[in-house]
Amino acid sequence: MILAAYSGRYPNIDEGTIVQICTDFNFFDDFFNKQDLSQIFDDANVEYNDDEDDNNPDDLLNRKEFLEIMMRICLKKYHAPLG
Fold this sequence. Notes:
By secondary structure, this protein is mostly helical. It has one domain (2-78). The chain is built from four helices and two strands, in the order αβααβα. It has helices spanning 2-6, 15-24, 34-44, 63-78; strands spanning 13-14, 60-61. A two-stranded antiparallel ribbon has the order 1-2. The chain is globular, with a radius of gyration of 14 Å.
């Protein structure tokens, strides 16, 4: 999280910071790779056209989206298929 503070975009986080976090914590493996992360980042980073003053710049995650991306990573990496 210190990376986010040093990026100058605090409290928002860019995709490069998320990649660095996943690399530092060894999240990437055969079940979860950088392409998966890119898709998850796009899915979690929702921009609303009608709310221009939401403190959520384009292509950056706010705090809520950060928690969402962590949950999506866990589901992708550790989800056991049913049946």
